[in-house]
Amino acid sequence: MAFAEQLAELYDMEFQTQKALEEMLSSAVSPTLRNALHEHRDQTIEQTQRLVICFDQIHEAPKRSRCIGMEGLVAEAHEIMEQAGSPTQLEMDMALAMMKVEHYEIAFYTSLLTIARFLDLPRVEDILTVNRRIEEDAADLAQELLGEMLHHAMHPEKQFRW
Questions:
Q1: Domain housing 77
Q2: Does residue 41 sit within a domain?
Q3: How large is the average pLDDT for residues 15-36?
Q4: Which of 59, 91, 138, 141 has the fewest Cβ atoms within 10 angstroms?
Q5: Mean confidence (pLDDT) of the chain
Q6: How many folded domains does the chain comprise?
Q7: How far apart are CA 1 and CA 68, in angstroms?
Q8: Is residue 64 a part of any domain in this protein?
Q9: In whole angstroms, what is the distance from residue 23 CA to residue 83 CA?
Q10: Do 57 and 123 form a contact (C-beta atoms < 8 A)?
Q11: Could you tell me which of 151, 47, 46, 33 has the C-alpha nearest to residue 81?
């Protein structure tokens, strides 16, 4: 698959992520999770804007190509969240789904970054590196949130940030 086609799939992935984050925002209860989801949604919007620059760098119009992998992760997240028995369980499921999505995005960005280096596209490489770092930070935050939620669920008598 050509680099432009991979970039189009990545572009679609970010749009799917933005929509999923908006849906999760409507279900989140804790302020900490809501803030994390809101911030990452805004970052995702900025990431899609930077991807437009990548298209420009390779002399292609921005376009979306269906990202089936992300569709599967989003569908799995919906299914798991529908089965949650409590608001606490729902939020733990959302944090877990967020971790899975972020790690998929990290892998995708890393793959395209490798190709951009090979094709000697330094501006594209820089943009993909920035976007990947955002995904890495979001994955770390989701892991931290999930850990705090699990501690709170197992030790409700203790105070946690969540």
A1: 3-154
A2: yes
A3: 90
A4: 59
A5: 91
A6: 1
A7: 15
A8: yes
A9: 16
A10: yes
A11: 33
